[in-house]
Amino acid sequence: xAATMPPLAEATSALDExxxxxxxxxxQNYARYPLALHRGKGCYVYDLEGKRYLxxxxxxxxxxxxxxHPRITKVIRQQAGLLLHTSNL
Length: 89
Description:
- With 89 residues, the protein is an alpha+beta fold.
- It has one domain (8-80): Aspartate Aminotransferase, domain 1 (Alpha-Beta Complex).
- The chain is 37% helix and 13% strand.
- It has helices spanning 8-25, 62-65, 70-80, and strands spanning 37-41, 44-47, 52-54.
């Protein structure tokens, strides 16, 4: 099922809520840009309003896998139905 983007007013409200949660629960050791990413595809990420950004930072797994590759998404879903995590303790 494809996700739909919220209307602009709703997106702004959601961003404000996310920023407030960050200020409440995250250590404020550096200033954060007020941006909430909603999804990714390939080498791009999209904010709550649907604006596309080229991800030049690319985190640990994303730098080699990209976002939402169909085959990778499929095997993650399959594995999630079996086992997600085991402790090494």
